[in-house]
Automatic annotation (TrEMBL):
Keyword Zinc-finger in annotation: no
GO terms for MF: NAD binding; oxidoreductase activity
Occurrences of domain D-isomer specific 2-hydroxyacid dehydrogenase NAD-binding (ranges): 102-273
Protein name, as recorded: D-isomer specific 2-hydroxyacid dehydrogenase
Cell membrane as UniProt keyword: no
Pfam families for this protein: 2-Hacid_dh_C
Keywords: NAD, Oxidoreductase
């Protein structure tokens, strides 16, 4: 029985070493060294091969090596092959760190200080209390919840928005499209941690920006396609938005001449907010194989109808 890994080969070597220790009964292979395709039961991939069950006829489970699965073309994956996204402590820790630094960058005026430094200007901005900076997170799943739980410790008033009702201690939770404007109206720093689906594509657009208080900021750590980049530029020019921190763009990377690269109120990182950590991810994948063999639902099993 083979476990096939199809993503970054250097990480694949780390997965291979961990599988050899923790699940030696499985033959572990790194794409394109598939061996006999008929023996492959489990696939972990960032991008599965086209038509995966034709290439791997006895495939039983597809694991995403990332938290999102929007990059998968699920149309060719038969319903009997479950798709599992990555939920593991390393990815959560990384995201909490990244979003915390992004919020503090905005909160402590580091865009302004970067401008002053360029001009060799020693100039102070008034320090604003955390209690006066309202944070709002789109998406109250594994990552959005963990981010809010950390941010509220700084004293920021915290709110979140999701599809279904959620309850998170100390967080003002909103659910559904009818509550979106109320959520946006009280949000000074908007953080996107939604999955990319037909319902959320292009969601960070002029309409949403106009519902935020003037001078709000946006942090996009979901997917590039959540954001209408033209609308963002227009909102920065008009002053409706103050600044944006983007870990994801559309496309990735942005073309070299894209105006977002050089905008003084935009910071871009190359989709590094968080990444799966092999040491913790392999434990979760092995546990999921055990659950699958026992006929149980796996951790992070995707609801294909919902798209996440
Ligand atoms: P989850 O599936 O745990 O959470 C998704 C949340 O979004 C849920 O609260 C869900 O609502 C909400 N949601 C989904 N669709 C809608 C909608 N139409 N309207 C309102 N709310 C909606 O995902 P994670 O927290 O694990 O991950 C979120 C995303 O973060 C990933 O899909 C990925 O795109 C991105 N990511 C980015 C990384 C990076 O490095 N930049 C790294 C890892 C992830 P409900 O609670 O009702 O289901
Ligand atoms: C993920 C990502 O989805 O890396 O995990 O973006």
């Amino acid at each position: 029985m083979t476990f096939l890994y199809k993503a970054d080969p250097a990480r694949g070597e780390q997965w291979a070493r961990l599988f050899a220790q923790k699940a030696p009964e499985l033959a572990f292979r790194v794409w394109p060294d598939v061996g006999d395709p008929a023996t492959v039961r489990y696939l972990a991939a960032w991008m599965p091969p086209d038509d995966p069950t034709r290439t791997l006829p006895n495939l039983q489970v597809i694991f995403s090596v990332g938290a999102g699965i929007d990059q998968f073309d699920l149309s060719g994956v038969p319903a009997h092959v479950p798709v599992v996204r990555m939920i593991e402590p390393g990815i959560v820790e990384g995201m909490v760190e990244y979003v915390t630094q992004a919020v503090l960058t905005i909160h402590r005026d580091l865009f302004d200080y970067a401008g002053f430094q360029q001009k060799r200007e020693w100039r102070e901005m008034p320090v604003r209390a955390a209690a006066s900076r309202r944070i709002g997170v789109l998406g109250l799943g594994v990552l959005g919840t963990a981010v809010l739980e950390r941010l509220r410790l700084f004293g920021f008033p915290c709110a979140g928005w999701s599809r279904s009702e959620r309850v998170i201690d100390g967080v003002d939770c909103h659910a559904g499209i009818d509550s979106l404007d109320a959520f946006l109206g009280r949000t000074d720093v908007l953080i996107c941690l939604l999955p990319l689906t037909d319902a959320t594509r292009g969601m960070l657009n002029a309409r949403v920006f106009s519902a935020l208080p003037q001078g709000a900021s946006v942090i996009n750590v979901g997917r590039g396609a959540h954001l209408d980049q033209e609308d963002l530029l227009a909102a920065l020019v008009s002053g409706q938005l103050d600044s944006a921190i983007l870990d994801v763009t559309e496309p990735e990377p942005l073309p070299a001449d894209h105006p977002l690269w050089t905008h003084p109120r935009v910071r871009i990182t190359p989709h590094i907010a968080s990444a799966t950590r092999p040491e913790s991810a392999v434990d979760v994948v092995i546990e999921n194989i055990r659950l699958h063999r026992a006929g149980l639902r796996m951790i992070g099993q995707v609801d294909r109808a919902r798209g996440y």
